[in-house]
């Protein structure tokens, strides 16, 4: 085998330009695969990060009525009590989300607000990585007229920066800022204030309505079963169209599914370029065989069997494949790094982090080797079948 | 038993729709240790005869017996094995592989025969020393003169210790001095017991042989011991 490799290297370095051009075909294909798949991996990773932010042990129940003008009845405190009694439920946090009129230093703006029971706020969200405090604290028990605000609300939502201790007017009521979250990279989260649930409903005149509830389960593996029980319980009082129940997993799955389409498209593009690369190898090897007809005749005259000739050509094309693959993996890696930097520049840090995994690199190498081998089979067969008498005469 | 025996051998080539006979009813016996030259004008069938004897080709009719064994109907790979073990070729064009060094060219037939690397290297070096190229081991063919290239080719032909050396116009591309050296090497090999068969136009080279066979239009017209 080592002899075949030695021979191959001599053959490949003999026609450097042609070898290079042949390699290029495979390099482009593998580079495309590695770069595109690494973006795909980055997307999947981004989704998983999102999953971590949400926390895995949660079930979300959302009313489809609030603000939507549906016909059914909105979810209420009674539903919260109903869900609290379902086996497997650890605790339920009711939430009221809306956009309210706000005023800060004379500037009026519509501000998205999430109302959450002050005593349960930290417990509900703190394990979700999205919410890390930059300054101050979470709203907590007894904090009626207090708010913890997102990074953008503090930073540039109003013309003047909002700091801990400042007061914002919500619907004409003074609310004191007690904490500011660090930048989450997500505008929806950044541009939001968290206030006490009861106080918010009071000033907005919303009675016992809720828009969502976040349910935590005792056992993550039971989340699916609990979510079904919640659905069944709520269906007794509500139209099935008037609410949705989603586990964290389901939420993540919805996002990943939409990425799959993109990955298939990427994969298609990469596959086409690899096929072109393979045809390139086959073409070069056929040229090689034609050009080396006499040599193959000499080898046969000196005792080479068909299998020797066959192996020689197949090894050569396999080597072209794997060298092209190796360079392709490196270039794909470089491109992937480049995309990372671009993403950081334009999308913000940690939004999309592409990754060239060891599996991907190994797969790309194996794949390019196989493409090389397959491309070499036909030329090798032709070479092996050459009649030595005819070959010597050429 | 003769080393080589041809019985009523005919060889014809299909040229389009026409069948062109090249060899007609050749009967020939060559004993071990003979030095035979085959002469004749171009187109007389010398090279075709050489290919048949060297197990490169099969006759259309008749039998080629090597050490009593009929090789005229063997499959390709069996013929390859016979070429590996029994026959060494020397060509007019030298036919060395240009990318390989002198050593590697000599090693090639041993590689095909599965000789272990150590043994291959030792034998290749010994053979190159034997043909007077001990100082040219790692030279590529392009760095060698015609006479040197042909000596590498002879070393290669000897690599697997064949019984028969077949040389097709071995001095045809050489100046007279190099030609004489090659002729001398071939005679020397014959003295050591190798059976040598050469195809040549050259009367001087032919005279080195102990037996001269003349071909004309695919038939043996003369076969005499000098």
Topology:
The complex is a heterodimer of chains A (394) and B (226).
Chain A: H1 2-14, H2 16-54, E1 58-63, H3 77-84, E2 89-104, E3 107-116, H4 121-125, E4 133-136, E5 146-149, H5 151-157, E6 167-170, E7 173-181, H6 187-190, E8 193-196, H7 197-204, E9 212-217, H8 223-235, E10 243-247, H9 248-291, H10 293-301, H11 306-347, H12 358-384, H13 388-393
Parallel strand pairs in A: 3-8, 5-7
Antiparallel strand pairs in A: 1-9, 1-10, 2-3, 2-6, 2-9, 4-7, 5-8, 6-7
Helix pairs in contact in A: 1-11, 2-9, 2-11, 2-12, 9-10, 9-11, 9-12, 11-12
Chain B: E1 4-15, E2 18-30, E3 35-39, H1 46-53, E4 61-66, E5 69-70, H2 76-86, E6 87-90, H3 102-113, H4 117-130, H5 146-158, E7 164-168, H6 176-191, E8 195-199, H7 203-208, E9 211-216, E10 219-225
Parallel strand pairs in B: 3-8, 3-9, 6-7, 7-8
Antiparallel strand pairs in B: 1-2, 1-4, 4-5, 9-10
Helix pairs in contact in B: 3-4, 3-5, 4-5, 5-6
Number of strands of chain B: 10
Number of helices of chain B: 7
Q: How much helical structure, as a percent, in the residues of chain B?
A: 25-40%
Quickly give the structural class of chain A.
Answer: alpha+beta
CATH superfamily of chain B: P-loop containing nucleotide triphosphate hydrolases
Q: How many E-type strands of chain A?
A: 10
How would you classify the helix and strand content of chain B by structural class? Answer: alpha/beta
Largest interface: A-B, 20 and 27 residues
Sketch the topology of chain A as an H/E string, one letter per element.
Answer: HHEHEEHEEHEEHEHEHEHHHHH
Shape designation of chain B: globular
Strand content of chain B: 25-35%
Shape of chain A: elongated
- Secondary structure tally, helices of chain A: 13
SSE arrangement of chain B, N to C: EEEHEEHEHHHEHEHEE
CATH topology of chain B: Rossmann fold
Mean pLDDT of chain B: 93
**CATH class placement of chain B:** Alpha Beta
